[in-house]
Design brief:
The protein is an alpha/beta fold. A hairpin with a 2-residue loop joins strand 18 and strand 19 (about 525-530). Involved in acetate metabolism.
Length: about 700
């Protein structure tokens, strides 16, 4: 088993961020990762759990051993109990050794109070037989000065071939000549390998409006979205409104005296027009007029946070400078983004060589999402989005275009898309296609008539149907002008599926269209089918759903072990509902004797190893199912939503299966990330079908 000790070169190098990114990078390789911070080092003002361990646990769903308190460690070191202390640390580390491929151990951070950190980390590395990864932040220095400084720090761990230092990760690298020289081959020389160069990115250090409220002890006039909105910049509103309006930007926190009613109304108007301000901070003891606030109710209902403090604006700005920029323990969105960002700047080829092949690939949710994006980028497909001016869809299309996930086509008037982009402070990337339906609709009338001639469709009727952008986009897919379609942010599932059934048809060998959700549980990804389309399938249809779901799981890297879910296991129950599941299992086995499939199985017997051994000891699926096929829509939809909400897991989908070409439906409550991943799924489906 590979062990890495992450050793900081000094204070403030972003050690926690690097740990988050390294764990994410290793998880993406399918490795089972363990994390341990042996010694808790609380920061000023920290009253809760040790920060690195808590963030790793909450972001990556790991369970690190409890760290030793710093005061206890120092007392034992002072008493000459170094050997006993290391034995205690090794004992705690034993909790992680079984079942893990890689261990990440975070070392002590040097500070004026912890001057012994380097010596302690060196002894710890030798005790653990660990590779040391130094983490450093470049100062205002030349490349030669940086090399010398890092070489000295590496030598403190041992010289020459006896040195355990495997390499260096440079964090918070600012733009400039040094950053440019770090892009050269072997910038640190042959003695020290550069394992990662993480550029500084201001957007990853932005606090939430709620963090500002906590720092200032502000009163909540209106909470709104204050736990989701982020403060990109602070604007002191001292000038007149006309000059201020030009300075309003997405993420602005507007700091203004409570009696500046013109600023308050201007902020509300900007918010109503789609400007996602971080919030309005009312200062001084002068309260805002109640009638003015009443005029702002629509903006507040849309999520505009409004805070109030009794300090003067200038004093408030000075208070804001004291904000702790470290990741708050409850800010999981920021921790996730930092994990992904740091991971994307590490040397994955070196990690692959050093850590080897996992004993059994572990498809964690981060690994699933990462592979999803990589495969979509490789597929390079053109995906049409009929809801082209819907704000979440515009954001998702921009992300996909920028990251190369898909070549997106928005069906909407260009001026409407541009207006949405401006309101959100979004720059539309080059290459993002926007097609005005009014300008292209007429040329699709004749192909529509031809495709539906057997139904007696006339040109006027075709023209009327093509007024629906979902129908128009589906026809583009039928004519091979695009590779896939994603809709549903403002349309029902029926609106999305009906045109597909009429114009695309089912794939050869498929009797029906069904769906699956990819359930991203904390430590694995499961497939649930069918939770969105077929209300009450018969045995033959249920068998078809099982086979389609198994193929979908396999296509996305999940070994299919299919459990046919019922309220009873094996031969323990009787009745029409159980018999349907039993017959569906028989039919699916006949069609695919190579597939691991069993049923009827109760959910706990399918999912939990101990229950599976007890209730179905001879089953190849019980206790280790990866694909769960539900007997009807009532059961499937209820279960997926209960698991999603109760386990706080992300569900990707529904992904439709059984069509000749990929069409996918969105939940009307879909987030931007949900749409991005659904576009990625669609691109992969299109690439698989083409292959």
């Amino acid at each position: 088993m590979q062990t890495f000790l992450i050793a900081p070169s000094g204070y403030g190098v972003g050690l926690t961020s690097v740990s988050l990114g390294l764990v994410r990078a290793l998880e993406r390789r399918g490795l089972k990762v363990g994390f341990f911070k042996p010694v808790a080092q609380p920061h000023p003002g920290d009253a809760g759990p040790e920060r690195s361990s808590a963030l790793i646990a909450r972001t990556h769903h790991l369970t690190p051993p409890e760290p030793l308190p710093l005061a206890q460690v120092e007392r034992r070191l002072g008493d000459g109990q170094l050997d006993e202390l290391q034995e205690d640390i090794l004992g705690r580390l034993q909790q992680l050794e079984n079942g893990h491929d890689v261990l990440i151990v975070e070392g002590l951070v040097p500070s004026p109070q912890v001057g012994y950190a380097v010596r302690f980390n060196g002894q710890l590395a030798r005790s653990l037989n660990a590779d040391v990864i130094l983490v450093s932040t470049p100062a205002e220095e030349s490349l030669e000065e940086l090399r010398d400084r890092l070489d000295i720090q590496a030598r403190l761990f041992g010289a020459g071939q006896d040195s355990p230092v495997a390499g260096v990760i440079l964090n918070k690298v600012r733009p400039g000549p040094l950053a440019e020289r770090l892009c050269q081959p072997e910038p640190l020389g042959k003695a020290l390998r550069l394992l990662g160069c993480v550029p500084w990115r201001e957007a990853l250090n932005t606090p939430r409006t709620s963090d500002i409220a906590d720092l200032l002890g502000a009163r909540l006039v209106n909470a709104g979205d204050y736990r989701q909105r982020r403060v990109q910049h602070t604007l002191l509103c001292a000038a007149g409104v006309p000059s201020l309006l030009a300075q309003f930007r997405p993420g602005s926190l507007l700091v203004t005296p409570g009696d500046r009613h013109d600023v308050i109304l201007a902020a509300a108007l900007a918010s109503r027009n789609g400007m996602p301000l971080a919030g309005l901070l009312l200062c001084s003891a002068l309260p805002a007029d109640a009638q003015v606030l009443e005029q702002c109710r629509p903006a507040m209902a849309d999520g505009l946070p409004v805070l109030a403090v009794d300090r003067a604006p200038e004093e408030t700005l000075r208070e804001l400078e004291r904000l702790n920029r470290e990741i708050p323990l409850d800010d999981l969105e920021r921790a996730e983004r930092i994990s992904d960002y740091v991971a994307s700047h590490l040397d994955h080829a070196w990690l692959t060589r050093r850590c080897g092949t996992p004993r059994e690939p572990h498809l964690s949710p981060p690994a699933f999402r990462y592979r999803l994006v990589k495969r979509a980028q490789a597929a390079n497909r053109r995906i049409v989005l009929p809801e082209g001016s819907e704000p979440r869809t515009v954001q998702a299309a921009a992300i996909c275009q920028r990251r190369g996930i898909a070549r997106c086509v928005l069906l909407a008037k260009p001026e409407e898309v541009q207006a949405v982009a401006r309101a959100q402070g979004l720059e539309l990337p080059a290459g993002l296609e926007i097609l005005d339906p009014e300008e292209i609709r007429e040329r699709y009338v004749e192909p529509m008539v031809e495709l539906r001639r057997h139904k007696g469709l006339s040109a006027p009727a075709a023209r009327a149907q093509l007024e629906d952008n979902v129908v128009l986009g589906t026809l583009m897919l039928a004519l091979d002008e695009v590779d896939g379609l994603v809709s549903g942010a403002v349309h029902t599932t029926a609106n999305t599926i009906r045109p597909a059934l009429q114009l695309i048809k089912t794939a050869p060998g498929c009797k029906l269209v069904s769906s699956v959700f990819f359930m991203l549980l904390p430590d694995q990804v499961l497939v649930y089918g069918d939770c969105a389309v077929n209300p009450d399938p018969d045995a033959a249809e249920l068998a078809d759903i099982a086979l389609q779901s198994a193929v979908s799981a396999q296509a996305f890297g999940i070994p299919p072990r299919v459990a046919m879910i019922s309220y009873s296991t094996g031969d323990s129950g009787e009745g029409a509902d159980v018999e349907k599941v039993r017959e569906a299992t028989r039919l699916a086995r006949l069609a695919r004797p190579d597939l691991a499939i069993d049923g009827p199985l109760q959910y706990d017997a399918a999912a939990i190893a101990s229950v599976g051994r007890q209730k179905a000891p001879d089953s190849p699926v019980a206790g280790r199912a990866t694909v769960f096929v539900f007997p009807d829509l009532n059961t499937g939809n209820t279960t997926y939503k209960a698991v999603q909400r109760s386990a706080h897991c992300v569900s990707v989908g529904p992904m439709l299966q059984g069509l000749r070409k990929p069409v996918n439906d969105l939940s009307r409550g879909a987030l931007v990330d949900d749409i991005v991943f659904t576009i990625a799924l669609t691109a992969i489906q299109a690439g698989t079908a083409a292959g």
